[in-house]
Every structure is written in C-alpha cells, then in structure tokens.
Amino acid sequence: MYVGRTVAGSIHDYKLFKLEFDPKIAWFKSIKIDVDLGYQGIKTDYQFSENICIPYKKPRKSNKNPEPKLTDKQKSENKLISKKRIYVENAISGIKRFQICVNRLRSKSNFFKDTIIRLAAGLFNLKNNFIIQ
Predict the structure, then answer these.
(1) Does residue 131 carry a pLDDT above 70?
(2) In the chain, which end has fewer C-beta atoms inside a 10 angstrom radius, N or C?
C-alpha cells in the first residue's frame, strides 16, 4: 500500500519511518497500521496508539521470571498478525524477483531508484491482480 524512499546503506527501518512520518503529527488518527517487532516504541512515540498493531514480544528471562512465556491471548493475537504479515513478506520477495531491485544500481539519481521500486511494486500488483481502492 505504501512504498517509502530508497536509502543507501544500513539504516534501521524505524529510524527511516520516523524521518518520513513525523511523530508530532497525528498520522494514525484514521489509519490503522500493522508493523513488525522492528518498530518497538512506536506506540509511545506516536499518537492514537490504538490504531497501531504490533506483535507481542516474549518477555526476557530473569530471576523473577525464570521461564518467560506469552499468554494464550497474546499468542493468538500474534498469530492473527502473522497471517496478515505473510502477504507483505510475499510481496517483498515478489518485488525482489525483479533483479534490478536486488542488484547494485550505479545511478546517482535517487529519483530513478525510487521509480524502479515503484515500478516493480506496480508490476507485482498487476501480475497478481491486486487492486488498491
């Protein structure tokens, strides 16, 4: 549904997310988003956290909690999130089948790099008859 800017180098996804979506603006007032565990802290950084769906993380092992486990409710919610997330992962791998998105591109134009990703995403959606309304 959304393709962000392409950035060279290794920059954490959540840092890029915060650069594109300023935490001071109420982005998620009317939009519901699903994110993965790489976005820890998103519920505290952004307003309208009830519209942000992030999986539960297994608690750390400690002296007070020697065998940490998620509750059955948390496990079932994580399973529902995973069922939606698999479509995203398959779309990412489908876009990467276009080798131009995976191999090193020796172009200095960031506009061109962004265009390639958008075109690959559009071709993937066209091939799979995904219609965004």
Answers:
(1) no
(2) C
In a domain, 61, yes or no: no
Q: CA 8, CA 110: separation in Å to the nearest integer?
A: 9
Beta strands in 1-133 (DSSP E): 33-34, 52-53
The helix/strand/coil state of 34 is: strand
In a domain, 19, yes or no: yes
Q: Whole-model pTM above 0.70? A: no
Q: Which domain holds residue 133?
A: 69-133
In a domain, residue 115? The reply is: yes
How many whole angstroms separate alpha carbon 47 and alpha carbon 31? 12
User: How many domains is the chain partitioned into structurally?
Assistant: 2
Q: For residue 1, which of 112, 131, 105 has the smallest C-alpha distance?
A: 131
Half-sphere exposure of 8 (CA within 13 A, CB side): 10
Q: Return phi, psi of residue 96, to 5°.
A: -70, -15
**b/e 66-98 (16+ beta carbons within 10 angstroms → b):** eeeeeeeeeeeebeebeeeeeeeeebeebbeeb
Same domain as 130, residue 78: yes
